[in-house]
C-alpha cells in the first residue's frame, strides 16, 4: 500500500469526467487500497480516484461509523430528496469550508471491490459524502455547488492564498 499525492484545485484531472471501470483487476484493487490509505492519512471521510490523478469511476469513504472503509465502483445516483446546507470541505481544496446546499438524502448504487452490487444511502454526513464523491467522478468540485457570488469570493480567497 502507498500514500498517493492528492491533486489540488487547478489540476485538470479534477475537472475531467472519469471513465467507467471495465474490469476490477489487480491494478484497480491496488489503486483502491492506496486510495483508502491516502484517505486515512489525509485524513478525510471520502476520496475519489481523480483526486489521486486517476480518471476512473471509483470512490472510497469511511464516515467513522465503525463499518470500515467502503468502495463504490461505477456508481449511479439512484435517488435524492430534500435539501440541506452543510459546511463542506474537500481534500483537493484543502483548509476551506463553505456552506453548501445539496440534497439531504441520497442513495448510490455501484459495485464493491469484489464485483458484487452495493448500495449505500442515507442522510446527514453519509448522504453528503456520497454526493460529494459522486460529483468528483463527473469533474465537479464543491465550488461549483456555491451560488455565483459565493463562488467568486471563494475563488478570490484561494487565489490570494496561492499568491501568499
Ligand atoms: Ni472532495
Provide the fold topology.
Elements: H1 26-41, E1 46-48, E2 58-61, E3 70-81, E4 84-88, E5 98-102, E6 105-111, E7 117-122, H2 124-137, H3 148-163
Antiparallel strand pairs: 1-2, 2-3, 3-6, 4-5, 6-7
Nickel (II) ion binds next to helix 2.
Any idea what the shape is? globular
Q: Give the strand content.
A: 25-35%
* Number of DSSP E strands: 7
Low-confidence stretches: none
Provide an overview of this structure.
This protein has a 5-stranded antiparallel sheet, sandwiched between helices. Strands 4-5 form a two-stranded antiparallel sheet. Strand 2 (58-61) and strand 3 form a beta hairpin. Helix content is 28%, strand content 26%. The protein contains 3 helices and 7 strands. It is globular and about 45 Å long.
Name its key features.
164 residues; binds nickel (II) ion; two-stranded antiparallel sheet; alpha+beta; five-stranded antiparallel β-sheet; 3 helices
In short:
This protein is an alpha+beta fold.
Amino acid at each position: 500500500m502507498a500514500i498517493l499525492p492528492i491533486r489540488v484545485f487547478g489540476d485538470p484531472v479534477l475537472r475531467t469526467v472519469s471513465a467507467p471501470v471495465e474490469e476490477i483487476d489487480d491494478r484497480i484493487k491496488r489503486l483502491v487500497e492506496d486510495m483508502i490509505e491516502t484517505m486515512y492519512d489525509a485524513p478525510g471521510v471520502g476520496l475519489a480516484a481523480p483526486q489521486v490523478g486517476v480518471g476512473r469511476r471509483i470512490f472510497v469513504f469511511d464516515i467513522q461509523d465503525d463499518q470500515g472503509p467502503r468502495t463504490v465502483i461505477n456508481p449511479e445516483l439512484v435517488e435524492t430528496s430534500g435539501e440541506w446546507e452543510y459546511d463542506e470541505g474537500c481534500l483537493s481544496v484543502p483548509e476551506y469550508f463553505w456552506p453548501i446546499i445539496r440534497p439531504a438524502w441520497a442513495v448510490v448504487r455501484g459495485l464493491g471491490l469484489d464485483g458484487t452490487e452495493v448500495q449505500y444511502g442515507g442522510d446527514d454526513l453519509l448522504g453528503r459524502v456520497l454526493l460529494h464523491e459522486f460529483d468528483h467522478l463527473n469533474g465537479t468540485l464543491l465550488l461549483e455547488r456555491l451560488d455565483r457570488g459565493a463562488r467568486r469570493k471563494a475563488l478570490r480567497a484561494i487565489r490570494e492564498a496561492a499568491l501568499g
